[in-house]
């Protein structure tokens, strides 16, 4: 039996939002295939997530150096810890989000800011242990090699090929973040181009939903 955490970073309705349709289809199919698993749903727009700011940054630095925290710093760390612990305790994590302005919704960015914690999701690699200087992930060591991640995303344009691929900082951002944590198993369902090619939109969305269901079944 596993614990799966499903994260939704979109507060548009399912009728309007393709990534919410992917989320709902994934959830339904997952429940059917894994009736004994523990399923936790986290709707980021329903949370109160303060931005990463001086309180969290200074507080974490003080903890490292054993310095007394202010009440505000303690509070900022407690909030981040609550989400970090929930994430760490899940065997599998599913994240659904739209591409907005070439990147992820701000609320998801803030959530990921809470997860980036040395000693929990990654650790710094001592310089003498860096084997491949060309490996962008070599200066740190991910601590979550066994976690499974599924990314569910919708984007109106096409970014899966050049020359637009470099402009996409949503799925890439999330994938690189989990790569930084050492996650090896990352599945993606991306519906793309349904605004660029509206005559094919229905088919594209249908295909994405079917893919989400299949991945959920075997996740
Ligand atoms: C505020 C906003 C910004 C968007 N920015 C982009 C973008 O940068 N690139 C793109 O291809 N589509 C963009 N779109 C289109 C969305 O990616 C598209 O509507 C997608 O289906 C969003 O996911 P959703 O349907 O789950 O809400 C944007 C849409 C909105 C509302």
From TrEMBL:
EC number, UniProt record: 1.6.5.-, 1.7.1.17
Co-factor note (free text): Binds 1 FMN per subunit.
Pfam families, per database record: Flavodoxin_2
Annotated Gene3D superfamilies: 3.40.50.360
Alphabetized UniProt keyword annotations: Flavoprotein, FMN, NAD, Oxidoreductase
Quaternary structure and partners: Homodimer.
Function: Also exhibits azoreductase activity. Catalyzes the reductive cleavage of the azo bond in aromatic azo compounds to the corresponding amines. Quinone reductase that provides resistance to thiol-specific stress caused by electrophilic quinones.
The protein, known as: FMN dependent NADH:quinone oxidoreductase
UniProt gene name: azoR3
